[in-house]
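Sat 14:20. Reprocessing the chain from the morning session after the first attempt stalled halfway. Input below, unchanged.
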Amino acid sequence: MEASLLAKHLLAFFLLLIGLTVHEWAHAWVAYRCGDETPKAAGRVTLNPLVHIDVFGTVLFPLICIFSQSGLLFGWGKVVPMNPRNFDRRWKFLLAGGAGILGNLLLCFVASLLLTVAPNFALIAFGLLQLNAVLIVFNILPLPGLDGFYLLQSFARLSTETVRFLERWGFLILLFLIQVPLVRMILMITVEGIMNAFIVLSAALFGVLH
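Finished this time. Tokens:
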């Protein structure tokens, strides 16, 4: 592998790790601030990436994506433990469950600002924006391990059999879905839409301030 290509892959992996770390930290921090001590006790209220790493989801799966040249880079961190009984309001639990996506939205905003005000860092900023947009889109999916599944459980009464089925086959369902051309196209269009929205927002903000 050429040195330039290897450097590109390493940069993409590093930026993905940033996105996953902020995602899991956001879950833990919001849950802790909303009254659940569970993430704090588990040592997850930190931006240290080592405590959020899932060996398969954070390391092996992204590397498979990179070296298979699939054109799609995605991953996930270790699930943050939360106890619904520790939240005195249902909306606080829902906020903690969706906080990971909010963390990625924040990174998208930071990356889009960098694209606007620091063109010398365009490669890094674009990569950070794209990867976090991907994390947002995939985490909306209602599959185990992703934020969408736990939010779905909060709004819908899923049977025990349904939950067990999804927990057992959810990953294979995800792999199947991303191979379906129509699904892949919809996901990529959504990612591009998120990226364009943040770029337009940052450009407009920059224009107002100047």
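The longest helix spans residues 3-33.
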